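User: Reviewer 2 asked us to show a designed sequence for the structure in our supplementary figure. I'm pasting the structure tokens here. Could you produce the per-position amino acids so we can include them in the response letter?
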């Protein structure tokens, strides 16, 4: 099978397009675009429209057939859409050069492409998250420190692999940040460091060399090799910590540590905008997925809310219906004070009533009672 990113598969104009893309695209992005255009080339060959002069005869129906062709392939939905968008970028460039009809691009408009399934984040449940963090902290393995750093900073595994030897930046207030270099989203970011996480980074550096024969002092983790090779190496050690843990009927992966980092911060009150900055997302829509919490988190939040509501209801009932204990003489004393202050009657009449209440209060003070005197009071908050 011919590799789909083989330069011989692509037309000279496609190669010229990719050459221009090097100005703003990473090498990994260019590889993906080569593969997407490779699929497009193979399809155009079946339509006999690969040559430049035949490319100008490209129809919307041809692109519709290409969408159907790609959709029938055993690829992940996101990969299919990504390839289609790569082809659209190339055709947009051809349209700018007046080589094709720009109306063709409407077929590959993102809003008209098959919708990619939107999966909820899969954070670990609180108990598994705690257990796993305890394992990392108690282990003497330097790999445990790396995995703990993943959990406590929300790094992608590729970002951890490519962290430089000295990734910590300190500002003029002596506050420490982890500087994450250009990664998947092609942007840098600064992640605030807790003192404990700062120490974890120092311990990782102190553990060098971790993997004899594959040492790389340019990387924090100190392991040399391609991203995929180092990832596979790390996963072999990661499985030793997570092999007995199943969460939501799913295995524990590196990326689930990132999900746990984000959802725990969100649950603690960190804003979506801050989550976006901490995770290095370029669009707020990516971060909003974390607001769509998992069913187990939803259940926990629901039960907490019910408890609060029940508690408030109980307080309200207590406020609306209270039973007060008083001494009869005390009640007469309050009645005497109330009459003296508020009774709108002639002064002579008020003095007569006050004398009677004083005698009555004195008489009641001399009496002993077998049970306390209780008064039910109802408060109407709607009056």
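Assistant: Here is a per-position design you can include in the supplement:
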């Amino acid at each position: 099978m011919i590799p789909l990113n083989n330069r011989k598969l692509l037309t000279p104009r496609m190669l010229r397009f990719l050459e221009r893309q090097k100005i703003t695209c990473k090498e990994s992005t260019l590889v993906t675009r080569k593969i997407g255009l490779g699929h497009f080339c193979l399809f155009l060959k079946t339509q006999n429209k690969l040559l430049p002069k035949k490319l100008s005869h490209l129809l919307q129906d041809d692109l519709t057939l290409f969408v159907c062709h790609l959709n029938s392939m055993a690829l992940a939905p996101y990969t299919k859409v990504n390839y289609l968008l790569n082809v659209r970028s190339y055709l947009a460039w051809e349209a700018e050069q007046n080589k094709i009809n720009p109306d063709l691009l409407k077929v590959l408009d993102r809003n008209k492409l098959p919708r990619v399934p939107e999966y909820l984040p899969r954070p670990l449940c609180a108990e598994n998250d705690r257990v796993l963090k305890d394992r990392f902290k108690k282990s003497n393995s330097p790999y445990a420190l790396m995995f703990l750093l993943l959990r406590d900073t929300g790094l992608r595994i590729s970002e951890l692999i490519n962290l430089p030897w000295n990734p910590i930046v300190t500002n003029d207030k002596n506050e420490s940040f982890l500087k994450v270099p250009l990664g998947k989203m092609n942007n840098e970011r600064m992640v605030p460091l807790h003192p404990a996480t700062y120490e974890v980074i120092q311990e990782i550096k102190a553990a060098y060399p971790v993997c004899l024969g594959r040492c790389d002092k340019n990387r924090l983790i100190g392991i040399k090799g391609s991203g995929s090779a180092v990832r596979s190496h790390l996963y072999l050690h990661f499985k030793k910590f997570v092999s007995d843990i199943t969460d939501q009927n799913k295995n524990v992966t590196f990326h689930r540590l990132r999900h746990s980092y984000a959802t725990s911060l969100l649950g603690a009150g960190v804003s979506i905008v801050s989550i976006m900055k901490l995770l290095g997302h370029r669009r707020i829509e990516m971060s909003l997925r974390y607001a769509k919490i998992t069913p187990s988190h939803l259940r926990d939040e629901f039960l907490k809310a019910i408890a609060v509501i029940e508690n408030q209801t109980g307080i309200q009932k207590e406020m609306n219906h209270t039973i007060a204990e008083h001494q009869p003489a005390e009640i007469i004393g309050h009645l005497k004070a109330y009459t003296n202050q508020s009774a709108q009657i002639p002064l002579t009449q008020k003095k007569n009533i006050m004398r009677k209440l004083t005698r009555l209060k004195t008489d009641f003070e001399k009496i002993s009672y077998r049970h306390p005197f209780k008064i039910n009071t109802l408060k109407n908050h709607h009056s």
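For the response letter, you might also mention the following. Residues 125 and 297 are 8 Å apart (CA to CA). The beta strands are 168-170, 176-180, 189-192, 246-247, 250-251, 321-326, 373-378.
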